[in-house]
Write a structure and sequence with these properties.
Structural class: mainly beta
Order of helices and strands: EEEEEEEEEEEHHEEEEEEEEEEEEEEEEE
Helix content: under 10%
Number of strands: 28
Shape: globular
Number of helices: 2
Distance between the termini: 55 Å
Radius of gyration: 24 Å
Strand content: 35-45%
């Protein structure tokens, strides 16, 4: 029979098997610290403390027989908020003291690159409580809300991409935010789409069929909001090109974009040796002809010095890095 688990203070409570609403007062096990939350993966129950992660062993039966045990499996970090604990296909992800972590109930590891920015985003109890997560089981990504500014609500979403495997300290992470009133306070996936509530009481839905964003204006009705462009700001992973003795050349970057009934403008920046030499490469621009749905430009005037690529569904361009003495680097 199934069991439900609850946490309160430093106690983990278990329901009577098959009766989730019935939790006798003595059906609990006590930890040495306050417990943040509880989840499960592949029939393994996992409890999350402030400083440790525990596998739950044993159980009480419907007659009160048996014993509930907490078996510590990780003592480097606990979970910083109950809302950050996200159950995925192959385990549980959560926000820890110095990054995002993964556990399968037997082992635990940090999966994000440790950064000072993460610690600054979670350095108060209020900021930690605002980290809320959700799992996209179609695209295999974990989403978390994060507060990066000085306001009173999250202003960015961090996305852990699991399509390339789970790697210690190196699982890819992307983020998305806007320049105008983006405050996601809670996340969920419904019907394959991301839904999130915000601090002003609105519920938003992210879909791939929209090439523009809505600019929130609490002074008018939502139907009167202005449109805003969706700006993509992508920073690729660092690549190790060798040692200080044997460095390598990088000369060009090739890009490919699939246009979604909209215009395209891309600014590529090269960053050699983590900021030692940063330079902006020529902009890639493409215009989209109008479609039956009305998207794109009704008139296409080709201006060679402005538009570097012709209209089409796929934009395939390369850019040469500047030969200013920094074509060789370690990263």
């Amino acid at each position: 029979l199934g069991r439900m688990y609850y946490v309160k203070g430093n106690r983990l409570y278990q329901s009577i098997p098959g009766d989730f609403d019935s939790v006798p007062g003595d059906y609990f096990v006590q930890a040495d610290e306050d417990l943040i939350g509880v989840s499960s993966t592949r029939n393994v129950v996992v409890a999350f403390g402030q400083n440790r992660i525990y596998r739950v062993a044993g159980a009480r039966d419907e007659f009160g027989n048996g014993e509930i045990l907490l078996d510590p499996i990780f003592d480097r970090s606990g979970a910083i908020s109950s809302g950050s604990i996200v159950k995925a296909d192959n385990g549980i992800f959560f926000a820890g003291k110095d990054g995002f972590y993964f556990t399968d109930g037997y082992q635990c590891m940090r999966v994000s690159d440790p950064q000072d920015t993460y610690i600054s985003y979670t350095n108060t109890a209020a900021k930690r409580a605002r980290v809320q997560g959700a799992y996209d089981n179609v695209e295999k990504r974990v989403y978390w809300t994060v507060q990066t500014g000085s306001g009173s609500a999250p202003d960015k979403i961090w996305v852990l991409d699991l399509q390339y495997g789970i790697n210690a300290d190196e699982t890819p992470i992307t983020t998305f935010s806007t320049l105008h009133s983006f405050n996601p306070t809670a996340l969920c996936f419904y019907g394959g789409a991301l839904h999130f509530g915000d601090a002003d009481g609105y519920t938003w839905k992210q879909t791939l069929d929209r090439s523009i964003d809505a600019k929130k204006d609490t002074a008018v009705a939502a139907t009167s909001w202005n449109a805003a462009p969706i700006i993509w700001d992508v920073k690729s992973c660092n690549h190790d090109y060798g040692s200080m003795v044997l460095r390598k050349y990088f000369t060009r970057v090739t890009t490919q974009f699939e246009m979604q009934d909209t215009n395209l403008s891309v600014q590529i920046n090269s960053d050699a040796d983590k900021g030692r030499s940063v330079s902006a490469l020529p902009v890639i621009r493409s215009r989209k002809l109008a479609t039956a749905a009305g998207y794109g430009d009704s008139k296409f005037d080709w201006i060679p010095d402005l538009y570097t690529t012709k209209a089409g569904d796929v934009v395939d361009e390369f850019r040469m890095f500047k030969g200013d003495g920094f074509l060789r680097s370690n990263f």
